# Entry
Amino acid sequence: MPKGVPLTVPDDGLTTRQRRNAPVLGVHTGDGKGKSTAAFGMAMRAWNAGMDVAVFQFVKSAKWRVGEETALRALGEVHVTTGAGGPVSWFKMGSGWSWLRANDSDGDDHAEAARAGWREIARRLAEQEHDFYVLDEFTYPLDWGWVDVDEVVETLRGRPGRQHVIITGRRAPAQLIEAADLVTEMVKVRHPMDAGRKGQKGIEW
# Structure
């Protein structure tokens, strides 16, 4: 794809503008480092374009605060105070999801929490609440059978409007990869942990 120009143009009856403005479903998978980091980088681009950005973190503990969360929340505040960029929302499964009352689900039932998160995402997609979604580490609830893959794929394929969705995590299901417009596999060649080095602030979080 030299200089951003497609090598082939499909005979699909669409104009160049229609193809260019089509919503993107992206999947970042594989064993290498950088899946979430790349997704958050795309979210920052989306923010700069004035899009409404929403991040949904699955699996990660509510106590973990990754650097990208701090940065994107700060950008959300910039939007509120100056009007630059777009709104930013950030939700964590480990927090019990902010839209659930404390007695709505058992905090230890991670599978039900994941399903509740997906139901809320599906609702927001149907109502076109955001422009750019990051479903961070969402492949794991799919891989573990907590959330039905076919339902997810059907919902994502049928989402209205121009809503971009980026999903991260290892072992992305084949159905999700087949449905995606953009698939990147991070391949690990070498990692500091292979040499017994623990994660470092500013590198891992």
